[in-house]
Design a protein that fits this description.
Elements: H1 2-15, H2 20-33, E1 38-40, H3 49-66, E2 68-75, H4 81-92, E3 102-109, E4 114-119, H5 129-145, H6 149-170, E5 185-189, H7 213-225, H8 238-246, H9 251-261, E6 268-272, E7 278-283, E8 295-300, E9 303-306, H10 308-314, E10 315-317, E11 323-325, E12 345-347, E13 353-355, E14 370-375, E15 386-392, H11 397-400, E16 409-413, E17 420-421, H12 425-434, E18 440-446, E19 471-476
Parallel strand pairs: 1-2, 2-3
Antiparallel strand pairs: 3-4, 4-5, 6-7, 7-8, 8-9, 10-11, 12-13, 14-15, 16-17, 16-18, 18-19
Length: 478
């Protein structure tokens, strides 16, 4: 399989050779467009590469969709922040990426403990001083209090994008003009590292044994509308309580979640697992309602409780607030217990779910819906043939619940302590068929990454002097 794919890749590279120069030029243009998007002279942003990567993605969307050039500068300057922001704004706009004068500059001064969002004249009808002051105080300064400056910058970009989307729908942008600042914007205290003693306050909210997941969702909506930020509410799982105790939550976060949930409620249905211990509020089909995020619930102390902690682990959202999965984390920890709710859907390389529509009655008789080719280790007998996944039906349990795909080589199965290695195809089939519905199945494998990631070197399994690194997959049996 791997050899065939390598040959195919080589042929494809020959076919596309003429386009390489164009692709390289595009990458150079992209790099140039990103120049000076972040100037971190205070060294408080670039140590969070993952957050800054998400920021850059939003930033590119602002430029692409709304022609807004948004820059961020952190500084330790002694100069008045208003004067500094005006000078920096003028300097950066000499190489403005906007063609219509729509520009924003976020300045964070860590020495003066101030933040200012500078707004160009072309954007003032949309980003008014009052609105800018509001998102500073209620949107991202709370992150600065928790010394999560990179997260605050990311939140600022998300809020700017949301406002631009609303404004574009209302046609509030003015005609293109010179990109100069006339003092628009607002400044406020950043309160960097100064914890807010009232940040985690709110009345207690109890769950009832008779509550359904939809009942719990209604209670959660009331919590959001009341700006209740108490992390220890009874409607949360224990893991969610611990998550919220550390996580920064703002009024704007909560208002946005209410806004996002409202249109979903009529479409939500409750999907329960076989043991009635996990549930998902889902708007089906997922690929039609991508803006209607699924919500996870777990039964603890005999009550249904909201599992935001697992949602935060496995779910991601793009600039249009369409949900998708973190493929690497989707089946980790508690995440594997919710995979059942996505049977029938396969995931692309970015984790977006798609309905698998091909009808094939032949596959109905297979419990996990996969098939094997064979491979051998040196010295194996003919009957020792091991499973090299030939096909895992997209949307089938092997694909959704274990994450298996064509090209995966199976080396073993079973939980640690009862693990068996070098298993044959027959042993693998018998093992997977023997796992009771709702129980955890464990396989040891080499996963074939189609996105170019480096695979594990399992040749070491035959050499006792080489450290063996295994990839363990766990899923819940159908």
């Amino acid at each position: 399989m791997r050899q065939i794919l390598m040959v195919a890749a080589a042929l494809l590279s020959l076919i596309l050779l003429g386009g390489c120069e164009k692709k390289e030029q595009t990458l150079q243009e992209k790099a140039a467009a990103q120049k000076n998007v972040i100037i971190d002279d205070a060294y408080v942003l670039l140590d969070k590469p993952k957050v800054m990567k998400m920021y850059r993605e939003y930033n590119e969307g602002l430029l692409r969709d709304y022609d807004i050039d948004f820059r961020v500068v952190t500084t330790v300057s002694d100069e008045d922040i208003d004067t500094f922001a005006n000078k920096e704004f003028a300097k950066l706009q000499q190489e403005s990426r906007s063609k219509s004068g729509k520009a924003l500059l976020l300045v964070i001064n860590t020495v003066q403990d101030k933040v200012r969002l500078e707004v160009s004249q072309a954007l003032e009808p949309v980003f008014t001083d009052a609105f800018v002051s509001y998102i500073e105080r209620k949107g991202f300064v709370p992150y600065f209090r928790d010394y999560k400056i990179a997260d605050g910058v990311y939140m600022a970009t998300e809020l700017v994008h949301d406002r631009a989307t609303e404004a574009a729908a209302g046609k509030e942008f003015v005609a293109p003009m010179k990109s100069k600042s006339i003092g628009g914007g607002a400044k406020t205290k950043a309160h960097i590292g100064i914890a807010d003693p009232n940040a985690k306050q709110g009345e207690a909210v109890s769950a009832k044994a008779s509550d359904t997941p939809k009942d719990v969702m209604e209670r959660y909506l009331k919590v959001l509308k009341a700006h209740n930020k108490n992390p220890n509410l009874d409607i949360y799982t224990d893991a969610t309580k611990a998550f919220f105790a550390k996580w920064t939550v703002t009024d704007i976060n909560q208002d946005h979640e209410v806004h996002n949930i409202a249109p979903c409620k009529a479409h939500y249905e409750t999907l329960y697992d076989t043991k009635n211990q996990h549930a998902v509020l889902a708007a089906l089909p997922y690929d039609k309602y991508r803006k209607y995020a699924p919500y996870f619930f777990k039964k603890e102390q005999g009550k249904w409780k909201l599992d935001i902690a697992t949602m935060a682990q496995v779910l991601r959202f793009n600039a249009q607030m369409a949900f998708h999965f973190d493929i690497d984390k989707r089946l980790q920890k508690e995440g594997k217990y919710y995979a059942y709710a996505f049977d029938g859907y396969y995931f692309d390389g970015n984790g977006y779910p798609f309905t698998f529509t091909k009808k094939d009655p032949e596959w109905e008789k297979y419990r996990w819906k996969y098939s094997c080719n064979g491979y051998y280790h040196p010295g194996d007998r003919k009957e020792d043939k091991h499973c090299w996944i030939r096909y895992a039906l997209p949307g089938g349990p092997a694909n959704v619940r274990l994450g298996l795909a064509g090209g995966d080589k199976i080396y073993g199965f079973g939980a640690e302590g009862n693990r068996k290695m070098k298993v044959t195809i027959r042993e693998l089939i018998d093992y997977l068929n023997s796992v009771p519905s709702g129980e955890v199945a464990t396989v040891v494998l080499e996963h074939y990454y189609l996105d170019g990631k480096e695979t594990h070197n399992f040749d070491a399994i035959l050499n006792p002097n080489v450290e063996v690194r295994y990839e363990i997959r766990q899923g819940i049996a159908p």
